[in-house]
Write a structure and sequence with these properties.
By secondary structure, the protein is mainly alpha-helical. 78% of the residues lie in helices and 0% in strands. The chain is elongated. InterPro entries: DNA-bd_HTH_TetR-type_CS (IPR023772), Homeodomain-like_sf (IPR009057), HTH-type_Tx_Regulator (IPR050624), HTH_TetR (IPR001647), Tet_transcr_reg_TetR-rel_C_sf (IPR036271), TM_1030-like_C (IPR049488).
């Protein structure tokens, strides 16, 4: 569907991507202006829609592109050798903060997509996120040491509980910071401290003391 765009020379493609990311990061989907994008990308509106068809397709493409960059960023920070699931979760949280601080506009696009997109786009955005999560998350839970688990705890159920926790925590912050995405990015250290507290509670319920 996007072959014409994908086959562009790299400099032109990056210029268009950067203009789109900047606009969607600053304004979200509904308020973003394709006029601003074409002005900053130095192309015509006809060319933009030739590549993407419409604003919706453009936004979904940019969201997927930013999610892919996020996963690429994770892979640049390989997890340490610890097989403790909670060590890995804390490390993953720290890596996420590093990536967000290094790539603020990419982070903002993803936040805008999950927090401010119209209802008709949310299912498609969630599908894109889930596909990447299914690809990436198994490596987080690979070779986990379950020897510290309580005898009464089923390791598979414990890992499922951890996943549900992560999804619930993400939902909490999406709801809390809806319409205040800039504050979320400013509060990442405070959020990380709270995240650690939640992890300690989970650890208490799963591990032998």
């Amino acid at each position: 569907m996007y072959s014409n765009f994908e086959n562009l020379i790299e400099d032109k493609k990056q210029r268009i991507l950067e203009a789109c990311i900047q606009e969607f990061a600053d304004k979200g989907y509904e308020k973003a202006s394709t006029n601003a994008i074409i002005k900053n990308a130095k192309i015509s509106k006809g060319i933009l829609f030739h590549y993407f068809g419409n604003k919706k397709n453009l936004f979904l493409y940019i969201v997927e592109y930013c999610l892919q960059l996020l996963i690429t960023g994770y892979k640049k920070y390989p997890l340490q050798n610890s097989k403790d699931i909670f060590d890995r979760l804390l490390e993953l949280g720290m890596v996420k903060l590093q990536i967000y601080n290094t790539n603020p506009n990419i982070s903002k696009v993803i936040l805008q997509a999950f927090m401010n997109s119209p209802e008709e786009l949310r299912a498609e955005i969630q599908d894109k996120y889930q596909q990447l999560a299914n690809e990436f998350m198994p490596s987080i839970f690979k070779d986990i040491d379950s020897s510290k688990f309580r005898d009464s705890v089923n390791p598979e159920i414990a890992l499922e509980v951890v996943m549900l926790f992560l999804e619930s925590l993400q939902g909490k912050y999406i709801k809390k910071y809806k319409g205040r995405e800039q504050e979320l990015l400013r509060d990442v250290d405070k959020i990380m401290d709270e995240y650690k507290e939640y992890v300690e509670v989970l650890k208490y319920g799963i591990y032998v003391r």
